[in-house]
Amino acid sequence: PSAYKKEPEKAEEYDPSPFAKPQLTTDKSISANESGESWYSYWSIGISDNTYPSELQSIFNVAEDLGINRTELSIDALGFYWPIGNHETINGFVVSGTSDTLSSNGASVSLKTYLYSYSVMHYFGQEPGDGIYLRGDVGLAKGVATFNSSSGSFSGSSEWGNGFLFGIGYGIPVSSGSRVILGFSYTSKTIEDEKYAATMFSIGGLW
Q1: Which pLDDT score, from 0 to 100, does residue 7 have?
Q2: Nearest Cα to 99, choosing from 71, 78, 67, 135?
Q3: How far is CA 182 from CA 54, 72, 114, 170, in A?
């Protein structure tokens, strides 16, 4: 009968050591996209090459020929985006703009145009901010002109218009939750029946 005696089961040993090896899983169904963030913020600064209605364009051209300093900049500010679909596409809103300033002898004239827009970015990498991307914006446009001198400052703004922006660029992840965005874009705005356009190169961040 002892041959049929059942041996007691050995209790599973428990290793209380803090150096016990954790059990690792190899479930590849969890992708980088599924661990993406719930929202993103985008800001950038860059240079621009602006094109204006003929009479205004002539003024800027003549000023440059006379040796007056000209500074052309671009910005993206207050950009907030939310992922859609597989997290490679984000949509939201952003304010993009250009600034064109003539300055000489302590006085300056500045023309700024803004686009307050709905914006979409699609990245071809594993997540937003990774690899090549395309961007499209559409929204409301406005122009602001400012004159500054030792005697004071004066400014005026246009009526509301409309505009769009198309862009292409490359995103470089630099840390968890931070990416450097290099972008090249074209924008066109119609303000008071006149066309204001610009090509822009920018360096920004997506967080």
Answers
A1: 54
A2: 71
A3: 31, 18, 20, 5
Six-digit token string for 170: 């490359």
Question: What is the per-residue pLDDT across 85-101, written as a single tens digit (0 to 9) for each?
Answer: 878 999 999 999 999 99
Amino acid 24: pLDDT = 43
Place of tokens 């509301």: 160
d(CA 87, CA 131): 14
Kindly report the three-state secondary structure assignment for every residue of the chain. CHHHCCCCCCCCCCCCCCCCCCCCCCCCCCCHHHHCCCCEEEEEEEEEEEECCHHHHHHHHHHHHCCCEEEEEEEEEEEEEEEECCCCEEEEEEEEEEEEEEEECCEEEEEEEEEEEEEEEEECCCCCCCEEEEEEEEEEEEEEEEEEECCEEEEEECCCEEEEEEEEEEEEEEECCEEEEEEEEEEEEEECCEEEEEEEEEEEEEC
- pLDDT tens, position by position, 14-71: 455 444 444 444 343 333 444 468 999 999 999 999 999 999 999 999 999 999 999 9
Residue 159 amino acid letter? E
Mean of pLDDT over the chain: 87
What is the value of pTM for the model shown?
A: 0.80
For the chain, what's the residue count?
A: 207
For residue 206 the two structure tokens come to 């997506």
Q: How far is residue 80's CA from residue 39's CA, in Å, rounded to a whole number?
A: 7
Q: How far apart are CA 69 and CA 202, in angstroms?
A: 21
